[in-house]
Every structure is written in C-alpha cells, then in structure tokens.
C-alpha cells in the first residue's frame, strides 16, 4: 500500500539516505510515499509493455522507452522524485534529456495497477502526471486485463478492453496492442 510517511517535509536527500530494503520510495511535493516491492505479475506486465514500446520507438528519432527504477522529477527537484513503471521520454535534437528526467520530458507515463492501494495510481499519480504536462497516462490492470487511458485536458479515462492504439506526434504509424494477446503473452 502506498502510504504517506509520517514526517513534516521530506527531501530527495533524505530519500537517498533511506536503506535499500526493496520498497519503492517516491516523493511528491515533500510527501513520501512507500510501496512494497512489486509482485511477479506486476513485473511481467511491466516487462511486456516496455518491450512493445521499445520496439515501436527504437527506430524513430522521436522518443525512447524506459522502465523503473528510473527517476523522474518536477521542477522543484529537491521535493519531488517519482518512478513510473514504464514511461516514454521525448528526444530533442536526437538526444535524451539530462537525467534525472523532468516530468515535462515525458510523452507517456504508465503504471501497473497496485492492488494494495489503487488510489495512489488512479488519483495521486494521475493528477501528478497530467498536471505536470505529461500528455497521456495509462493504468494497466492485470486482473481486469484492461488499460485505462487518460489524455491531458480530459477529465475521464477511456477504458480499453480489446485494443490500444497510441501514436505520438512525429510517428508515421500507431503502436497497436491487441490486449488479449498482450495479457496472454505477459502472464501466460
């Protein structure tokens, strides 16, 4: 369960001093969120999504796919650090932006649903990503075998049950994922 930790104001320096205990530590506006190590199902879905995004984007000069652990921050870098499960970073002049990435560098952020605290993915992280300029946010539900897709500027998600299409600006063709095949491959 992603729980805010009891402390008045956390910083990235304080986060770096925490032990490497298998938990994921994320910081949003000085509030520390702690989630347990991901399950095997979570990791299988993350891997399957990352591979598809990587294969789709690799030949292009538009963007690159990443998976966590990898840091993404807001402009107040001292009080903000998150690790989206899978994300896409825009290339500028054929180069990746400096690391750690800024949320404004992302074209897409995707989280695999956390059964222990869905509100963290569906509310806290959704609001963070979309309010920080990330154009699209996906939540993948392995149990329901669905993708919930939010687009910046829209209040509600599109719930996809059979097929996903994604085409960032500059790509000549969309990425198409058959969801039944995706989940069978990831979890089979």
Summarize this entry quickly.
The chain is globular and about 45 Å long. The chain starts with a strand and ends with a helix.
Task: Give structural attributes.
six-stranded mixed sheet, 188 residues, alpha+beta, tt1808, chain A, three-stranded antiparallel sheet
Q: Describe it for me?
A:
The protein has 188 residues and is α+β, with helices and mostly antiparallel strands. It has a single domain, classed as tt1808, chain A, CATH 3.90.1570.10. The chain is built from four helices and 13 strands. It has helices at residues 12-16, 40-57, 118-131, 179-187; strands at 3-4, 24-28, 31-35, 63-67, 72-73, 86-90, 101-102, 106-112, 136-141, 146-151, 158-160, 163-166, 175-178. Helix 2 packs across helix 4 (179-187). It is globular, with a radius of gyration of 16 Å.
Helices, by number, come to 4
CATH class identity = Alpha Beta
Overall body shape: globular
H-E order = EHEEHEEEEEHEEEEEH
Number of strands: 13
Q: Uncertain runs with pLDDT below 50, 5 residues or more?
A: none
What topology emerges from the helices and strands here?
Blueprint: E1 3-4, H1 12-16, E2 24-28, E3 31-35, H2 40-57, E4 63-67, E5 72-73, E6 86-90, E7 101-102, E8 106-112, H3 118-131, E9 136-141, E10 146-151, E11 158-160, E12 163-166, E13 175-178, H4 179-187
Parallel strand pairs: 5-7, 8-9
Antiparallel strand pairs: 1-3, 2-3, 4-6, 6-8, 9-10, 10-11, 12-13
Helix pairs in contact: 2-4
């Amino acid at each position: 369960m992603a729980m805010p930790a009891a402390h008045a104001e956390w910083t990235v320096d304080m986060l770096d001093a925490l032990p490497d205990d298998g938990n994921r530590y994320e910081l949003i506006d000085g509030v520390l969120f702690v989630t347990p190590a991901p399950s095997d199902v979570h990791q299988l879905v993350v891997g399957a999504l990352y591979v598809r995004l990587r294969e789709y984007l690799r030949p292009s000069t538009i963007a690159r796919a990443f998976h966590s652990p990898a840091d993404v921050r807001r402009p107040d870098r001292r009080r903000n650090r998150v690790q989206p499960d899978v994300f896409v970073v825009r290339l500028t002049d054929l180069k990746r932006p400096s690391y750690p990435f800024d949320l404004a560098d992302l074209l897409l952020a995707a989280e695999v649903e956390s059964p222990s605290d869905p509100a963290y993915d569906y509310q806290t992280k959704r609001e963070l990503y979309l309010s920080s300029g990330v154009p699209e946010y996906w939540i993948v539900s392995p149990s329901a075998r669905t993708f919930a897709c939010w687009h910046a500027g829209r209040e509600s998600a599109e719930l996809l049950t059979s097929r996903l299409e994604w085409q960032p600006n500059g790509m000549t063709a969309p990425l198409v994922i058959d969801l039944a095949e995706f989940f069978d491959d990831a979890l089979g």
